[in-house]
Amino acid sequence: MAKPADYNEIKARVTWLGAAAGLDLQSFPVPEIGLELLRVRIPSAGAASRRLFLAAGVHGDEPAAVTAVLQFLEERRREQYPGIDFTIYPCVNPDGFDAGTRENAAGDDINRSFHGEGTPESRALRRSLEGNRFDYWIDAHEDYAEDGYYMFAPTDSEWAADVVAAVGKVGPVTAKPEIDEMKIVAGIVDHEKDVPDMMEERQDWPLAFYMIKNFSKRGFTPETPGLLDLDLRVRMQLAAYDAALSMLSQEAAGVATPSGSAAD
Ligand SMILES: [Zn+2]
Residue 59 C-alpha to ligand 1 middle, in angstroms? Predict the structure, then answer.
């Protein structure tokens, strides 16, 4: 399935999906930019459930994440995970997506605006999350300058290695020891400081910090390699989601995931 041409197409495709049973399409006004933030809610089909937050397109120039989230919905992949309650934001930065820019139309990086006053988009997202609860989050990104996958798992997610292994079966994982002055170990960013220290020191919070503070320490930020073909990057994104969702599903079903299962 193709990369959406613009935010209107994202809206049209999500609206079409919203007509399907079991799927609740919601929209939240972003009055400052005259657009709506789209959200798809899919209540779990099973008794036991884990609540998942999945967002894409916080940066407008990272199309594989947005395309993969749409494809996830359109291929009804949710049906593989009846124990999961999904809350999905297909595109958090509508103007940036249309312009193909990392920032929003005002030139602000939304992913540095989840503390304090914020940007119109981060405010709308935060408002929409009031009263919600999540067990796990995925904030889907790409890195335009890279030729191998890596990811942030800022609280040392025990599942991160399994996600990297699953993505590595589809496309290349970076072998670099350092990206953007961050140490990388086996495709995972190895933060010099603990997350609480980083959150204390920084005011320019990414969405991940907001999720950690308000919802769950468990989650990750996949970064697919923007130098590779879009189709491959989309498949790598989907592999990352599927790996985490499989583990979350097992957890929801009360089946313990053996530690070190990445070594099989
Ligand atoms: Zn990004």
Answer: 5
Domains identified in the chain and CATH numbers: 7-263 (3.40.630.10)
* CA of 101 relative to ligand 1 center, distance in Å: 10
- pLDDT by residue for the chain (264 residues), tens digit each? 699 999 999 999 999 988 777 789 999 999 999 999 999 999 988 777 999 999 999 999 999 999 999 999 999 999 999 999 999 999 999 999 999 999 999 999 999 999 999 999 999 999 999 999 999 999 999 999 999 999 999 886 679 999 999 999 999 999 999 999 999 999 999 987 888 899 999 999 999 999 999 999 999 999 999 999 999 999 999 999 999 999 999 998 885 445 544 444
Distance 60 CA to ligand 1 centre (A): 8
As a whole number of angstroms, the distance between CA 38 and CA 26 comes to 6
Q: Would the pTM count as exceeding 0.70? A: yes
Ligand 1 centroid – CA 122 distance (Å)? 14
The HSE-up count of residue 200 (CA atoms within 13 Å, CB side) is 5
